[in-house]
Amino acid sequence: MTEQQKSDIIKLRKKGTAFSAIAEQLSLSINTVKSFYRRNSTADKQSMLPTCKYCGKRLIQPYGKREKKYCSDKCRFLWWNGHRNELKKKTVCIGICSFCGVSFKAYKSENRKYCCRDCYYKARYGVIQDVGKNK
């Protein structure tokens, strides 16, 4: 591998070019390109350290636990509020209440029969119950 190819690999990868495209462009094996880049790119090793998705603060990953993505709850909520269109949403279905006949929207569930707790209590007991209130 020539010095020119080495510098081209680093430049192209920093631009975001895929390893396969770099290998094809420079007529090298994809494994050669990958191994050279991983051994010689010190700048990318710093960027591989985990950072908060919102503020960019470096994260310390706990051993044996799920990988952290945010440094705090505040950053997590701020990121969620700013990226609502990227979040995976559950499928919403339209159902008809078995008691009052009103259509309602709910997350996908085959067991959902009632639009609210009041309709459930009326259908089951004939009265509305005060849930969680002290008498």
> How large is the count of helical segments?
6
Strand content: 5-15%
Neighbour order of strands in the largest sheet:
1-2
Count all strands and give the number: 2
SSE succession: HHHHHEEH
Radius of gyration: 27 Å
Q: Helix amount, in percent?
A: 40-55%
Q: Quick one: overall form?
A: elongated
The number of domains is 3
Structural class: mainly alpha
- Which stretches are low in confidence, meaning pLDDT under 50 for 5 or more residues running? none
Average pLDDT confidence is: 82
Distance between the termini: 83 Å
List keywords for this structure.
single chain, 135 residues, mainly alpha, 3 domains, two-stranded antiparallel sheet, elongated
Structure description:
With 135 residues, the protein is mainly alpha-helical. The protein folds into three domains: 3-47; 49-88, no CATH class; 92-125, no CATH class. The protein is 41% helix and 7% strand. It is built from six helices and two strands. It has helices spanning 3-14, 19-26, 30-40, 42-47, 73-82, 117-125; strands at residues 92-96, 103-107. The protein has a two-stranded antiparallel ribbon with strand order 1-2. Strand 1 and strand 2 (103-107) form a beta hairpin. Helix 1 (3-14) runs antiparallel to helix 2 (19-26) and helix 2 (19-26) packs across helix 3 (30-40).
In short:
With 135 residues, the chain is mostly helical. The chain has helices at 3-14, 19-26, 30-40, 42-47, 73-82, 117-125; strands at 92-96, 103-107. Helix 1 runs antiparallel to helix 2 and helix 2 (19-26) crosses helix 3.
